C-alpha cells in the first residue's frame, strides 16, 4: 500500500473568530531554548544565504540565526558575537574538522549559546557520536540536531541528547537529493510526524514557498521554521549579485552543490539565480505582518493560537 503525503501547497487553514481589534495586537515572538525571538522563522545555515554580517543583523533585530559551517573560524565568530552581547549560534559537521573546532572553542574558553549539527541525514551513527561529544563538551549549549524526516529518527535524536531537531529531507528549492537518490518526504507530513513524536521543539526546514507556509508549519507543531530561498535575494543575503540582460539576481546554491563543495562529488544540490529584491528589511516587516494576520485568523493573540487550527486539503 502506497501512502499519500502532503506538502505545504496541498493544505489550507480554516479561519476562526478574530478576537483582536488590530493585527498589530498579535504577538509573533517565540521562546526557543534559553531566549525569546521576534519571529519563529530564520535563514538557512547555508553559505549562499548567511555570512557573519547577516547573522549579526538578525541577532541585532532579535531574530534567531545560525551561521553556516563551511570554512568558518568558529572561535573568531563566537568571540565576535559574544563581545557585542549577541548570542552565538554556530553549525558543526560530523568529521574531524568539527571535532577540532570543538577543541578550539574549549581551549579558548568559549561556549556558543546554540549549536546546530548540520548533515543531510542525521539519523546515523556519525551524528550520534557527534551529538554525544557536543553534549559532553558544551552541556550549557542548546543543541539542534538535523536533519530528520520521520518520527523514529526524531525520537532517536531526542534520546541521543538533542534539545531540538530540524525536520525536512530533500524538500529545499536547490535540492536534487530526491532526483538523485529517490528519497524525500513532503513537509506537512514530515513536520506533523516529527512534532508528534518528541517533546523537544521541532524546526521545519526547507520548502517554504509562500509566507503562509510558515503558519502552516506552526500548525503542524513546528516551533521554528528555517528557509533558504526566501532569504536569498536581498542585499544582506550572502550570495553574489549578478546582472544578466540588465536584470539583477542573487546566486543561491545548495550546501551539497559543486559550488559549495568545490568538487563534483556526492553532489545533491544545485545553483539557481533568484530575483534581486533590495534591502531585507521589507521582507522582515512583511513576514511579521503576515504572521500577525495568521494569528488573527487563528482566533488568538499569539502563536499558541495556531496549535488548535484545523487543516484541510483541497482536491486539485
Ligand atoms: N536537508 C536536506 O535535505 C539536505 C541537506 N544537505 C546539506 O548539504 C550539506 C552536506 O550534507 P552532507 O552530505 O550530509 O554532509 P557532508 O558532505 O559534510 O558529509 C558528512 C559526513 O557524513 C558522511 N555521509 C554523508 N552522507 C552519507 C550517507 N548518505 N551515507 C553515509 N555517510 C554519509 C560523509 O561521508 P561520504 O561523503 O564519504 O559519504 C561525510 O563524512 C549539509 O549542510 C546539509 O545540510 C544535503 C542534502 C540534503
Ligand atoms: N538536498 C539538498 N538540500 C539542501 C542543500 N543545501 C541546503 N539544503 C536544504 O534546503 C533548505 C532550504 O530550502 P528552501 O526551500 O527554503 O530554499 C536548507 O535549510 C537545507 O535544509 C543541498 O545542497 N541539497
Question: What can you tell me about this protein's structure?
Answer:
The structure is a single chain. With 316 residues, this protein is α/β, with parallel strands linked by helices. It has one domain (11-313): TIM Barrel (Alpha-Beta Barrel). The chain has ten helices and 14 strands. The protein has helices at residues 52-60, 74-83, 96-107, 125-137, 151-160, 177-181, 187-197, 212-219, 258-261, 281-297; strands spanning 11-13, 30-32, 35-37, 41-43, 89-92, 114-118, 142-148, 164-167, 202-205, 224-227, 241-244, 247-253, 271-275, 311-313. It has a seven-stranded parallel beta sheet with strand order 4-10-9-8-7-6-5. It has a three-stranded antiparallel beta sheet with strand order 11-12-13, with no helix packed on it. The protein has a two-stranded antiparallel sheet with strand order 1-14. A hairpin with a 2-residue loop joins strand 11 and strand 12 (247-253). Helix 5 (151-160) packs across helix 7 (187-197). Ligand LQESDW3C binds next to strand 10.
Amino acid at each position: 500500500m502506497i501512502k499519500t503525503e502532503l506538502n505545504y501547497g496541498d493544505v489550507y487553514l480554516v479561519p476562526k473568530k478574530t478576537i483582536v481589534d488590530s493585527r498589530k495586537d498579535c504577538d509573533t515572538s517565540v521562546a526557543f531554548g534559553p531566549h525569546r525571538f521576534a519571529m519563529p522563522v530564520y535563514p538557512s545555515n547555508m553559505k549562499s544565504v548567511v555570512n557573519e554580517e547577516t547573522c549579526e543583523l538578525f541577532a541585532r533585530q532579535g531574530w534567531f540565526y545560525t551561521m553556516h559551517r563551511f570554512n568558518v573560524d568558529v572561535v573568531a565568530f563566537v568571540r565576535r558575537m559574544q563581545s557585542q552581547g549577541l548570542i552565538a549560534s554556530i553549525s558543526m559537521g560530523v568529521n574531524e574538522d568539527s571535532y577540532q573546532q570543538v577543541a578550539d572553542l574549549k581551549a579558548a574558553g568559549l561556549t556558543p549559546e546554540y549549536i546546530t549539527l548540520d548533515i543531510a541525514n542525521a539519523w546515523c551513527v556519525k551524528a550520534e557520536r557527534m551529538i554525544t561529544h557536543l553534549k559532553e563538551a558544551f552541556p550549557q549549549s542548546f543543541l539542534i540536531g538535523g536533519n530528520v524526516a520521520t518520527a523514529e529518527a526524531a525520537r532517536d535524536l531526542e534520546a541521543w541528547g538533542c534539545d531540538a531537531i530540524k525536520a525536512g529531507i530533500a524538500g529545499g528549492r536547490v535540492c536534487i537529493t530526491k532526483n538523485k537518490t529517490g528519497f524525500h518526504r513532503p513537509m506537512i507530513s514530515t513536520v506533523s510526524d516529527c512534532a508528534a513524536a518528541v517533546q523537544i521543539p521541532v524546526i521545519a526546514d526547507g520548502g517554504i514557498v509562500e509566507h503562509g507556509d510558515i503558519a502552516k508549519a506552526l500548525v503542524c507543531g513546528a516551533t521554528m521554521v528555517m528557509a533558504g530561498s526566501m532569504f536569498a535575494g536581498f542585499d544582506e543575503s550572502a550570495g553574489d549579485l549578478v546582472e544578466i540582460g540588465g536584470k539583477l539576481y542573487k546566486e543561491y546554491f545548495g550546501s551539497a552543490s559543486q559550488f559549495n563543495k568545490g568538487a563534483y562529488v556526492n553532489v545533491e544540490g544545485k545553483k539557481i539565480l533568484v530575483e534581486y529584491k533590495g534591502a531585507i528589511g521589507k521582507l522582515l516587516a512583511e513576514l511579521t505582518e503576515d504572521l500577525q494576520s495568521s494569528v488573527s485568523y487563528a482566533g488568538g493573540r499569539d502563536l499558541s493560537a495556531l496549535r488548535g487550527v484545523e487543516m484541510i486539503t483541497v482536491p486539485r
